[in-house]
Amino acid sequence: MDSLFDFLHKLSYMLVPLMAAVVLHEYAHGRVAYFFGDPTAKSLGRLTLNPIPHIDMYGSIIIPLMMFLMPGGFIFGWAKPVPIDTSKLHKPKRDMAFVAIAGPLMNLFLAIVSGLFLALFLYIDPTLGENWPPQPGVNPREDLLGMLLVPLSAMMLFSVAINIVLFGFNLLPIPPLDGSRVLVSILPPKQAIILHKLERHGMLVVIGLIMLNSQFPILSMYIGAIRELFFNLFLSKILS
Q: Residue ranges of the domains in the chain?
């Protein structure tokens, strides 16, 4: 019963930031594609902030829950990829770079906004810093302000974490991740074609990196370096 309560308690402040991170990531792809002339996402009802059309059964529900339950793992997920018709873009090769980078940049933006809200909550109630990180139910506050700010601070802290993970992970130059699409857009045609052809096998590499992370923490070290950079350049300054 305690483990079930702990699971539901953590899910209560992790679910909304995770869904916002993956849905807005895909929305950003679709919005930028629409700006550059491709109405495919809009015509299919995917240019919306409603999470339901974006939910992927495996990437948005099953995989995040499995990783949540794995000891020592990190939570990761994704939404259904927004369909892009490159032939409808004004300048397909150039515009696709902007479409691809829009998703990771949205996650970086969400991490910054979440960090600013976190700083605001600490400014409103400095006692939040006495029990850090904020954990609803673990460090209970009986006053109304604490009952609101502790869970909201926990949500913002997790939002920073998950958005930095998605930002860094999607920048990896491994097909079909966004980093590889940016690379395809700037490489010479011959090299771009070779990288594009690797997309059919790229997801196996991605899954392998995730599954082997506990034994060979290359992925954790890479994400950790990005998280440390974000903290040093931004988060530590607004929280100080």
A: 2-239
d(CA 24, CA 30): 10
DSSP characters over 81-103: PPP--GGGSSSHHHHHHHHHHHH
Find where tokens 């009952």 sit: 147
**Radius of gyration for the alpha carbons in the chain, expressed in angstroms and rounded:** 19
Write out pLDDT tens, residues 159-183.
999 999 999 999 999 888 999 999 9
C-alpha to C-alpha distances, 108 to 10, 38, 234, nearest whole angstrom: 23, 24, 11
pLDDT tens digits along 82-112: 999 999 999 999 999 999 999 999 999 999 9
Closest among 168, 170, 156, 52 to 113, alpha carbons compared: 156
User: Do 128 and 109 contact (CB within 8 A), yes or no?
Assistant: no
